[in-house]
Specification:
This is FtsX-like permease family protein. This protein is α+β, with helices and mostly antiparallel strands and about 400 residues long. Helices cover about 55% and strands about 15% of the residues. It folds into 2 domains: about 5-55 and about 275-410, no CATH class; about 60-265, no CATH class. It has helices at about 5-15, 20-55, 85-95, 135, 150-155, 165-170, 215-220, 240-255, 270-310, 315-320, 325-365, 375-400, 405-410; strands at about 60-65, 100-110, 115, 120, 125-130, 140-145, 160, 180-185, 185-195, 210, 225-230, 265-270. Strands 1, 2, 3, 4, 5, 6, 7, 8, 9, 10, 11 and 12 form a 12-stranded mixed β-sheet that branches.
Length: about 400
Amino acid sequence: MNVKENVLEGLRSIKGNLLRTVLTALIISLGITSLVGILTAIDGIQSSVDNSFSGLGANSFDIRNRPAMQVRREGQKEKRFKNIDYRQAIHYKSLFSTKGKVSLKTNVNFNAIAKFASKKTNPNTRVLGIDENFMELKGYKVGAGRNFSPNEQLNAINVCILGVDVIDQLYEKESPIGSEIIVSGIKLKVIGVLEKKGNMMGGGDDRVVVVPLETGRKMAVGRNLTFDITTSSAKINNLDDFMEEARGAMRKVRMDPIGMEDSFSIDRSDSMAKSFESITGSLRIGGFVIGFITLLGAAIALMNIMMVSVSERTREIGIRKSLGATPGRILQQFLIEAIVICLLGGIGGIMFAIPIGNLIAQAISSGSASFIIPWLWMTTGIIICILVGLFSGIYPAFKASKMDPVEALRYE
């Protein structure tokens, strides 16, 4: 009996015990679904993060306020740093504008309400004041309408560009371009619509009203705004050296004393993506462990099924041996049968895992994740199915191969 005949015999045996086989394969399928599904979801979430940071460029970094709150220890006073104000941000931009592109941004309001006709947004809309370089350096794109003109930037014209979440709340079928909305008591003309960006925290990058930087300062009259600075250069090969140069310029702008720590923070734009990548590595290990535990239970169940199958087919084994089947062929037959059951369950599990994993990724990343076909995890799942089949079938198959043919023929 060759391998092909053993495979066919295994399929016939499976067909003869269809209900038992389906239940066993279903256990394997659930294990593979959990394993491949979790890993697919993690890859999808990672793709969302990569998409979010893909437009930032490799040679960019952010300068922000240093966190003011520090833990008080043994009577030490809490250290506070002054915010980066408009004068300092403009001074830094003038120093570095010849070496690369510098963008300024300020959060005018975190909980604004935008109104159009009788509709209004939830009180969680962000109002951003941006300069002419912000869109390019931060990966925002205008999907309809246009960007701010130099005149609008310079003269604080009351115009705005809306995120898709704001549009969904204010408009039904009409185009927002050319309409006027009211934000914080100021009337703004809509000149553009941002493409959907998505955000790992629930779409916050799409829940924005973007205005020119000077317009944002006008809207926040009487309040002290803080400014974030992004610097980028396509000609710099060593970003670390460039960042140190920028650090020195910012210390000069902030008048930080020599020998004292920075009064601001400076970070690469892709640092969050790199941090999340290390987190997803740990999540993959956790997902693999969960899937492995599920498959271990399935392997034990399959081993039990194969033991029952050997007992039920004792006379069949005796007949095969009396007709010349060697112990090796009997061993091969039952091993192939166990592997075939695992492969059937594994293929079904993979078919369920791909859509489930992608749906989870889309839900967590607010629809910004790419659709993933996890070829690596699919291949890994198939290999694991074969290993589970070998693990589950080796003892029952060995037991069957060692049966005495005379005693097996006497079995009732």
